[in-house]
Design brief:
This protein has one domain (about 20-260). Helix content is about 75%, strand content about 5%. It has helices spanning about 20-55, 75-80, 85-105, 110-130, 130-135, 135-160, 170-190, 190-230, 230-260, and strands at about 60, 65-70, 70-75. A 3-stranded antiparallel beta sheet has the order 1-3-2. It has about 260 residues and is mainly α. The chain is globular and about 70 Å long.
Length: about 260
């Protein structure tokens, strides 16, 4: 951002000089750091929730297990979480919450929005806890670090590139809709080939969305939130963290389907 356009219109109604550009530049770095901090905390909550639910759900004592999935013996709690109809509540709850947060963010106090984001992250962790029953723990850790490195590189590209990625948004959104529809169809077909195709395309879509969202968040701050500040910028940081968080989670689950080793 050191090369911030000197024709940027400052909030004081004049052409921004070097001092204004430096102020916006410093504010932008703080704003993006706040977004990444929120996202990182959300991912940590998700990971801890997923691991906690898994550990409470399985037992090494076959006599204490009430059910079995693969090689894992489930406790009563595990049966409720992974077998009983209750599982659908935790599968669908994150989807409901993300729409609720997105729709009501402008009416929420920043502290309330933060709490809802943490609750959403925990629910997402609960819904993802079943991956520990499907994939080896080693492959989960390996894919997580692959995802983190990929996400970091793509987000850095979106932040630093001078290429205008605005036009990619509608294309990526259409790809996202296609992935959702294909995944719904595959619930009935149970085709491994279709699942593979969806996973490959999905990786490219969410890779593009990571770079696109990063540039979008950067531009929104420069041309809007730099002069707004306060609660407006804080709420924007939370929704920005939510966007990047969802890109990371989807990229992780898709790469896990492609690279994960099944238990």
């Amino acid at each position: 951002m050191s090369d911030l356009d000197r024709n940027y219109a400052s909030p004081f109604g004049r052409v921004a000089g070097r001092a204004d550009a430096a102020t916006v530049d410093a504010g932008l770095r703080a704003y993006m750091l706040r977004i990444y901090n929120y996202m990182s905390i959300g991912l940590a909550i998700t990971g801890l929730a997923a691991l906690g639910v898994y550990m409470a759900s399985v037992t090494g004592d076959p006599a204490a297990g009430v059910s079995k999935i693969g090689n894992a013996y489930l406790t009563q709690f595990g049966y409720a979480m992974f077998v009983s109809p209750l599982k659908w509540l935790f599968i669908l709850a994150p989807l409901v919450m993300v729409f609720a947060i997105s729709a009501g963010i402008n009416r929420l106090a920043p502290s309330t929005a933060q709490i809802l984001f943490w609750v959403f992250s925990a629910l997402m962790g609960i819904s993802l806890s079943s991956i520990f029953l499907v994939y080896t723990h080693t492959s989960i850790v390996r894919v997580f670090f692959i995802t983190a490195a990929t996400f970091g590189a793509l987000s850095l590209y979106g932040y630093t590139t001078k290429r205008d990625m605005t036009g990619m948004g509608s294309f990526l959104f259409m790809g996202l809709i296609g992935i959702v529809l294909a995944s719904l169809v595959n619930l009935f077909l149970a085709s491994s080939m279709l699942q593979f195709i969806v996973s490959v395309i999905g990786v490219f879509v969410f890779a593009g969305l990571t770079a696109w969202d990063t540039q979008r968040l950067k531009n929104e701050y420069i041309y809007g939130y730099a002069s707004a500040g306060g609660d407006v910028a804080e709420r924007a940081a939370i929704t920005g963290a939510l966007s990047l968080y969802l890109n990371f989670i989807n990229l992780f689950t898709l790469l896990l389907q492609l690279l994960g080793q099944r238990d």
